[in-house]
From TrEMBL:
SMART domains per UniProt: ENDO3c
Main EC class the enzyme belongs to: hydrolase
Function: Adenine glycosylase active on G-A mispairs. MutY also corrects error-prone DNA synthesis past GO lesions which are due to the oxidatively damaged form of guanine: 7,8-dihydro-8-oxoguanine (8-oxo-dGTP).
MF (Gene Ontology): 4 iron, 4 sulfur cluster binding; 8-oxo-7,8-dihydroguanine DNA N-glycosylase activity; adenine/guanine mispair binding; metal ion binding; oxidized purine DNA binding; purine-specific mismatch base pair DNA N-glycosylase activity
Domain HhH-GPD span(s) in chain numbering: 35-186
GO biological-process terms attached to the record: base-excision repair; mismatch repair
Protein name, as recorded: Adenine DNA glycosylase
Keyword DNA damage: yes
Enzyme Commission code: 3.2.2.31
Gene3D superfamilies found in the cross-reference section: Helix-hairpin-Helix base-excision DNA repair enzymes (C-terminal) (1.10.1670.10), Hypothetical protein, domain 2 (1.10.340.30)
Amino acid sequence: MNFSKQLIYWYLINKRDLPWRTTDNPYYIWLSEIILQQTRVDQGMAYYFKFVENFPTIKDLADAQEEHVLKLWQGLGYYSRARYLHFSAKYIVNEHNCIFPSSYNTILKLKGVGDYTASAIASICFNEPTAVVDGNVYRVLSRYFGIFTPINSTNGIKEFKKLAQQLIDVKKPGIHNQAVMEFGARMCKPQNPDCNNCPLNDSCFALSKNSIKELPVKVKKLKIKNRYFNYLVIHSKSNTTKMVKREKGIWLNLYEFPLIETSEPIDKNQLIKHEIFNDLFDSKELNVKLFTREEKPHKLSHQHIFTKFWIVKTRDSKNFNNSWDDIEKLPVPALIDNFLTQYKSN
C-alpha cells in the first residue's frame, strides 16, 4: 500500500467530525480555511458558526459593513484575514456574479488567498489535483522522507511543494489533502507524536534514525520588537470617553483609546508632558491614574506589546463623544477587550 493510500485509509477511520467536512460548498470551505490560518480548530469552530449564521451566503458577507465583520472576528487575531475575506466576497459578487471561482488559478487571485488555501479549495470542492502544503504537511513529509531542507527557505518551499504534488492521489485529491493534514494534526504532532500507533512507522525515516525532534528544520529569521503602548482611558464629567479607529499597522480599522506609543516605559510625569497628551486635553483639571502596574506583554508573532492603561478624569469636551455603551458595539483588539472586561468588573 503506497503513501497516499495508507493515509487515506487512516483518515477515513480516524477523521474528526468537523462541520466544513459535511459540505462541498466552496464558500464554507473557504471560510473555514481562512479562519483556521494561524488558529486552532477548537478555537476557530465558534467563529465558523458565527460567520455562517450571520453571513449564510457570499452575498450576505459582501453586503455586510466592515465593522460588523471585524466585530465578529474580534479575538481571533490577524485581522487582515477578516478584511481580505470581506474584500474578496465583494469581488466574487461583483466580478463573478456570486459564483465562487472554480480552479486553483482563479481562486489564487482572491485577496488573502495563497497557494495552500487555493489548493485546498480547488481539490476539496472541484477535484483539482493540487497538493496542499501547510505546517502539518511539512512535518509529515520531512519526517517520513528525511528532508532536512529548511521549510521556510525558498528551496524548501519548492522542494516540499514538488514532493507533495508527486504524492497526491489524482483521483481523490480532496480526500488525500485532508488526510495528510489531519494526519499531521493528530498523529504526527509537533510534540509527542504517536509513533507506536502510526501506520507509517515501519518506513518512517525520522523514527528509524531517532531524529523526530530535529524535523522539520526551520531557519530562525524573526526578530521580536518590543513596543510600549500608553492608552488614555478618558472619563469626562458626563461619563463619555473617546475611541479612535486605527488607520495603519496592526489592528487596522479596529478601535482603541487614544494612544501614546513610546520607545521605552514612561511614568505619569512623562505622560502628561507628552505632546499627544497636551493636544488632547485643553484643561489642567485632570486626574490621571494608572489602572494597573502589571505589564504583561501582549505577544504577537513579530512583536511584544507592553501596555499601560491610564485613567484620565477630565471635564466635558466635544472631542469625547463616545458613550460606554457605544464601545461594546465597536470592533476592538483583544488587548482592549480584555481591559474593558477587567475594568467593568472593578
